[in-house]
Amino acid sequence: MSKILGENLPNIPWQEKPANFNGPIWRHTENPIIKRNPVEGVARIFNSAVMPYGDEFIGVFRGETINGRPHIYLGYSKDAINWEFEKEKIKFVDEEGSDYQPLYAYDPRLLKIEDAYYIIWCGDFDGAAIGIAKTTDFKTFIRLENPFLPFNRNGVLFPKKIDGKYVMLSRPSDNGHTPFGDVFLSKSPDLKYWGEHRIVMQKGGSGWWQSIKIGCGPAPIETDEGWLMFYHGVTGTCNGLVYSMSAAILDKNCPSKVLYRAGSIMLTPEEWYEERGFVANVVFPCAALTDAETGRIAIYYGAADTYVGLAYTTIDETVKFIKEHNELGTIDGQEGKL
Ligand code: BMA
Question: How many CB atoms within 10 Å of residue 241?
Answer without folding.
Answer: 16
